[in-house]
Amino acid sequence: MNLTAINPRAAQGVKRCFTLLVAFCMTGAGLASTARAVDGDDPLAGGTVLTNMSQVYQVGQEAQNRENVRVKFRGVLTYQDVFSEEVFFIQDETATVFTLFMPGTNTFAAGDVVEIEGVVIPGLYVPAVKAEFIRVVAHAALPTPKITQVAHLAAGEDFGKWVEIEATVRDVCCSKDRVVLACVDHGFHFQVWCTQKGDTPLPLELLDARVRLRGVSWTKLDNARRPVGFILHQPGTNCITVLQPGGADVFRGATQNISNLRATADRPDVRVKVTGVVTLASPAGWLCLQDETGTLTASLFQPIGRDEDPRGKFLKRNPPALVPGDRLELVGAVRASSGFAPVLTDAEFRRLGHRPPPAPRDVASGYLLTGKLDAELVRLKARVVDLESQTNPGLFAEKVWLQSDGATFEARLDASEPVRLAVQKNDFVQLTGICELQAGRFQQVHSFQLHLRGPADILVTRQPPWWSSHAALTLLASGGIALLAGFSWILLLRRQVALRTADLEEAQAGLHRSLAEEKELNRLKGNFISMVTHEIRTPLALILGSSEILSRYLDRLPPEKRAGHLTTIAAAVQRMSELLEDVLLFSKAEAGRMEFNPVAMDLKNFCTQLVDEIASATNQRCPIELNVAAITESARGDESLLRHVLSNLLTNAVKYSPPATPVTFSVAREVGDAVFIVQDRGLGIPADDRQRLFTPFYRCKNVVTIPGTGLGLVIVKHCVEQHGGTLEIESAEGHGTTVRVRLPLFSPAHTDFLKRLSQNKTE
């Protein structure tokens, strides 16, 4: 692989890896000889000999440093770098090994079956092999690729393996005897380096095409040796298969209205086209666009950087500098849908003309907090609280914190060169800018930010003192020192009154905020008390009644009735214990203290045992039909959290279904994910209640007579998020409910990353 990357940033980690690996090979035992004599000393004498590639990954760090672990095995060469010819990837039926072979010019080809002798050396990510002898013994087809996902490769899985993925092409170039594709899949960007010597035309037909790619994955690392992405290396363009065609003209599609873009959010890599007027163009690489139907924010695509190869072929991209009022044709991929303005990623544009920019909308800060004006150009008045300047490479930022109508927010001006705003603390100003809403987990707006277009977008509105006018100066000159002192005293009083008024307004706004928070707290407290009162009163009444009967008539009750009352007491205690457990788990989740401890587990046995427990706990009310696909590999997840998820869903399915109505529970594996589907034919969820399914202590209107806390689905959602999974609910009132849970239980690297993240949060 070429040490001079086409994109210097993208290849910096790769270059560092090769430099260190070659350095390892050049030290210690020295350079390897070109070949080993057949009748000389035994090359395998005096050390451990590994005979397959999977054994290399089991060699400890200390043994790697000593270079006393020898290898002798056979495999298929899947990739040799076009410039660094000493670099190979060789794969057998057990694993893939990164191999270095220093001497001479090595003329090998992908598909060569080779025999290798050498030693194990340290690698930056996994152990490698320094070959002393390589011999071609045959030529075969490349191995069957492992079908995987881009997200798994970006997390560091399958380093060096011959894999197959799908992605969408965003940019192409030809340089240094290779074709380079800039690709994306579900938000993960990466490059494909495809060996192609000679004069190769730019493959413009691949732009925005959906392709299937086969190649070798090279994991990129940061300074802490953590995975931060990958590069896919291919031995030739025959490893690229077009699934959905693209074309050189990325603007060829039909134009859509901005208001209709949310309907395309389920296709994250398909770019759509809109036409509109620029309201803001940030030097940070994004812009805001407006048409007759709405507004959006677009993050601009960063193309492949041009290198020093004089024969290199790159797409001609010279986008003009944009200003508000420019009319554009823009393509971009719609990010996941929300209740706010659409967000496009990987956006590209072409300028169609210019017209006067749209007029801002005069608003109050309270109206912005309703969430209706995201990405719109607005104008409002506020008081300056504080200011700050920040400098980053190539970007200068001026930040102003303001207060208006009891709301505190930030205004920001980004510029490519230093700039200063002519305001100071306590100034009353008028601001014009793009509103960016800031929301919490459940899309509840808690603040907003204004992006200014230039220094002229913030104006001081404080009027000049009355005594600075020409008439007042004439009066002061004729009136003498006495009048001057009188007017000065009046000015001082006015300033004190203004400051006092501002303080009173701020205090009043604070009282309003406190009152609103108190009302919300009282509402939640009321819901909690109502739920606890209802859920605890019944089991307490059962315990009290059964205990009184036992205390009064113990000697007269037959054994079976005594046992019945004791069973009633135990069941009531269990019900209250489950309620307290739900409340404690909910409080931990809301406080961010829910722990995530994944372990290896037999998923089939786990689900079978859980179904038996639920059936027993619900007195066989509804039969639970378990369908488990053949899963041979051990899963890795948090058993406690997974039990909360599945037991809640199965209990709900049984509780809200008519007696004897079957409940279906399906478990299957899809690549690295486990998919759980719970389906019932019960009451279903009314349409009016679906938006509040994950509101604590809230229960649907058609189940108020059935016991419940309103916490089950909230806890399920928290547990699914701890696993890094997704939760989907489909329901219709009177026709049952289907819940689909997808968890990455077969992606160890992803699970371990979530575990470290959970530990950092709880510490």
Can you put this structure into words, describing what you see?
With 763 residues, the protein is of the alpha+beta class. It folds into six domains: 8-139, Bacterial OB-fold (OB fold (Dihydrolipoamide Acetyltransferase, E2P)); 146-244, OB fold (Dihydrolipoamide Acetyltransferase, E2P) (Beta Barrel); 249-302 and 320-358, OB fold (Dihydrolipoamide Acetyltransferase, E2P), CATH 2.40.50.140; 359-462, Beta Barrel (OB fold (Dihydrolipoamide Acetyltransferase, E2P)); 464-579, Signal transduction histidine kinase, dimerisation/phosphotransfer (DHp) domain (Helix Hairpins, Orthogonal Bundle), CATH 1.10.287; 599-762, Heat Shock Protein 90. Helix content is 27%, strand content 32%. The protein contains eleven helices and 33 strands. The strands form six sheets. The chain has a five-stranded mixed barrel with strand order 2-3-4-6-5. A five-stranded mixed barrel has the order 8-9-10-12-11. It has a five-stranded mixed barrel with strand order 14-15-16-19-18. α7 packs across α10 and α9 runs antiparallel to α10. The longest helix has 73 residues, at 481-553. The chain is flat and about 105 Å long. Residues 1-46 and 467-471 have low confidence and may be disordered.
